[in-house]
Amino acid sequence: METWLVIGVSGVTNGGKTTLAKSLQSYFSGHLNKIIFKENITLNRITLLCQDDYFLPVDSPKHTLIEKLNHINWEIMSSIDMDRMCHDIMMILGHKFILYNCQQLSKSETDSNIAEQTDPVNDEDNIFADHFLSNYLNKYDENTASVNQRSTTLIKKSKNETFQNMNIKLNVLIIEGFLIFNHPFTLDLCSIKLHLHLPYEKCYARRVQRVYDPPDVIGYFEMCVWPFYEKHSKEFKDRTDIFMLNGEVPKESLLNYVLNCIKNLL
Question: How far apart are CA 237 and CA 195, in angstroms?
Fold first, then answer.
């Protein structure tokens, strides 16, 4: 049965989430079929899935138009085909799999220059508390013609259980996107959650250097991009299982910090 560690990389526009996700992919790709982080863990497979690949086409009737700008609002969930994205995730995970769950890193182990973390997640906390993932799995099975029944097991660290004596071939799925922690399925699925933040001025300075298709219109950042980023980030800012990372930190330092976090969590 496949064992999967799912890592979510979210963040503000131009905050470095794609760079971090691809850096993680490159690091893991260089360690395939090798022992990684722990003596009992061998890296088996690495897959990266990007939410930007699921934007609906410009002519989709599902889009919301910003009348004052005569421009599509690309900053909301309805601009993305999340059903297709979730389906593709399930195709990657397969019909029988184990989700490797992790405890959050404690506050005392964080570096305030890179991350700001509040209270650690207790052993009793369950990231699947709202059962959305289980319900989605059942719905997915009902809609597939597969003869095999899905078997999903959550591996969870606890005070009475460790995995030092278990030999694990670990697959890693990295899910990258600006709204992955605002959708219940991808939020629940990610055992390690990373969110990159930038202050307004730095974010704007980076945004204006980029060319988008379709291109930003004047006022789009001020009226849409930043307000919706603040709105969406408020939905999960109080969660203690999300690492809030500083997008201004050099990418090499950020990668090293995240890899250390992952090592400590496994």
Answer: 10
